[in-house]
Amino acid sequence: MADAREGVRLNPSSGNNYENLAVSYFFANRLDEARVTIEEAWSKQLDTPFLHLLEYNLAFLRSDAAGMAQQIAWVTGKRGIEDVFLSAQADTAAYSGQLRKADELSRRAAASAQHAGKKETAEGYETSAALREALFGYPAEARKRATAVLELSKGRDVEYQGALALA
């Protein structure tokens, strides 16, 4: 079998190139190659926040709670990116049926985004949480949360997620 990376050339000093390749492998369901690409970037002292997010997602798929916790520990307190990880953590908690924990993590993600000056992103986390409430069969909570956010925001993404939660 030929090496899957044969013909792939990366700028050896760009963490973003490694990130893009690893993400491409991830979405092509070539998870081992995504993991190898992340490790290669880190071995070259190249790092991006989204390499850590991808590693978090890979750890989730392996049911590796320690690996997930390691990536959360890495991002804790990093303004401007912490919210993305908290949102991912909310999604994985919801996947595991931990809706209260998912709700708390979504609120923390929104607060972190707000603190970083990302108002519409914060509102998006709230409408995502409202949509999750609706999908899990809690229409009253979904309606309350979506209505509250829609009163504050007219952002396109916020409006469509809020509308879905209300539907």
Walk me through the structure:
The structure is a single chain. With 167 residues, the chain is mostly helical. The chain has two domains: 10-75; 79-167. It has helices at residues 15-27, 31-43, 49-61, 65-75, 82-95, 99-115, 119-135, 139-152, 156-166. Helix 1 (15-27) runs parallel beside helix 3 (49-61), helix 3 (49-61) runs antiparallel to helix 4 (65-75) and helix 8 (139-152) runs antiparallel to helix 9. The relative contact order is 0.08. The mean pLDDT is 92.
Which key terms come to mind for this protein?
single chain, mainly alpha, 9 helices, 74% helix, 0% strand, elongated
Compile the SSE list and pairings.
Layout: H1 15-27, H2 31-43, H3 49-61, H4 65-75, H5 82-95, H6 99-115, H7 119-135, H8 139-152, H9 156-166
Can you tell me the overall shape?
Answer: elongated
The largest β sheet comes out as: none
Oligomer designation: single chain
What's the pLDDT, averaged over the residues?
A: 92
Name the helix and strand elements from N-terminus to C-terminus, one letter apiece: HHHHHHHHH
Number of H- or I-type helical stretches: 9
The total number of structural domains is 2
The total beta strand count reads: 0
Q: Which bin fits the share of residues in helices?
A: over 70%
Q: Proportion of β residues?
A: under 5%
Please give the alpha-carbon distance between the first and last residues: 50 Å
What gyration radius follows from the Cα positions, in whole Å? 18 Å
Structural class determined from secondary elements: mainly alpha
* Low-confidence parts: none
